[in-house]
Amino acid sequence: PSESERGKARMERACAGAKARAGTSAVACAVACSRSDRRTGSCRARAGRPTRLWEVGGGRGELSFALRASTESPSVSAKGGREEEEEEEEDLRVALVERKTKETSVFVKINLDGTGKCDCASGVPFLDHMLDQIASHGLFDVEVKAEGDIWIDDHHTTEDIALAFGQCLSRALGTRAGIQRFGDFSAPLDEALVHVVMDLSGRPHLSCDLEIPAERIGTFQTEMVEHFFQSLANTSGMTLHIRQVRPSLPSRHRSHPRFGGKTSPSPHCTNTQT
Question: Staple 111 to which of 12, 69, 141, 173, CB 3.0 to 4.6 Å?
Answer without folding.
Answer: 141
